[in-house]
Design goal:
It contains 10 helices and 11 strands. It is α+β, with helices and mostly antiparallel strands.
Length: about 325
């Protein structure tokens, strides 16, 4: 199950999508923008999670509660999703959808895809904002999304972030705009639901951030780079490791980025530009960065090595402007 989506006994995945069929050919397609209720039902996210005390069983006998330790339990399946501390409070999936309701109600966003990972310990929701960023003279379209990610096992904050995605090759151009509002992180505490309800105001700022990103991407598309400058960019992004016995892997990664910039059909319209160089890095991460696809989502979106590399690539390209 390389995709890591939850599957039922019939092989149906707990996920919905609009538009093109995902690479794993799974999930339920909705042909129109979904309401929160429709989206939750289609993605099978309509379950609740509760916190239960952990009890020690020694020699077959149940002893007292384990201090400061609780299990998060999915109520429809009675599966234990994780072990958390006393301050942790579950944030229900319906509250995650409520986060987007003000925008969806005003037709400023639509529910695009959502799903359940593992046994239900992690969920995501992707909402599409209207219009596009159009880069370069040919107007390479980049769609504007807001991503919400939540865990029920104590492994992550609730995270909400902007995620531009190129239509041409479906790679996520995770960027590092140095603004606190570019990503929202909320701890699983008693006030988390209240903070989540208030945080929707931050989404209204995302259109301004996307306007800034539009300006920066188009400046990158106008900035020509020579073969030598491209090589210097890649070397600065992926420097030699002085402690390694061999830099073969480093050289191979650099060469792969340059090939993606020079040879792929998707790169043709931006070849020889700073945006083309940056986009080659994002394509490497999203399509070649993980041999195990189950780790791809984290690498692309949630602070894995792939997202970190894309952020460095963005910062380096912006500094070259």
């Amino acid at each position: 199950m390389a995709h890591n989506l939850e599957l039922d006994q019939t092989g149906q995945a707990s996920m919905f999508y609009t538009g093109e069929v995902p690479w794993h050919q799974l999930g339920r397609k909705l042909n129109k923008p979904a309401t929160a209720g429709e989206a939750m039902q289609a993605a099978r996210l309509d379950y609740t999670v509760v916190k239960r005390p952990l009890k020690a069983i020694i020699n077959g006998r149940q002893h007292a509660d384990v201090p400061n330790a609780f299990a998060t339990v999915r109520m429809d399946t009675n599966q234990v999703l994780g072990v958390v501390g006393s301050r942790y409070e579950p944030v229900q999936n319906k509250d995650a959808f409520n986060f987007f309701d003000p925008l969806v109600d005003r037709d400023e966003a639509i529910y695009h895809t959502a799903g359940v990972l593992g046994r239900g310990e992690k969920i995501w929701l992707l909402a599409k904002l209207p219009d596009y960023i159009r880069v370069g003279k040919k107007g390479d379209p980049i769609e504007k999304y807001v991503l919400l990610y939540n865990s029920h096992d104590g492994s992550s904050h609730i995270r909400v972030k902007m995620t531009p995605i190129r239509v041409v090759c479906n790679n996520t151009l995770t960027c590092a705009l140095q603004r606190s509002e570019a990503e929202v992180r909320i701890k699983h505490t008693a006030s988390a639901t209240e903070k989540l309800q208030e945080a929707h105001k931050i989404l209204e700022l995302y259109n301004g951030l996307y306007q800034q990103l539009d300006y920066i991407f188009n400046r990158m598309s106008l900035r020509k780079v020579t073969c030598q400058q491209l090589l210097e960019y890649v070397k600065a992004l992926i420097p030699d490791n002085p402690e390694a016995e061999s830099n073969t892997r480093t050289e191979n990664t650099r060469s792969h980025i340059i090939r993606l910039h020079d040879d792929t059909a998707e790169a043709a319209m931006h070849k020889g530009t700073l945006f083309g160089a940056y986009n080659a890095v994002t394509e490497l991460v999203d399509h070649y960065g993980q041999s195990n696809p189950s780790k791809q989502l984290k690498s692309m979106w949630f602070g894995g090595s792939g997202e970190q590399l894309k952020r460095r690539a963005y910062e380096l390209a912006e500094s070259m402007l």
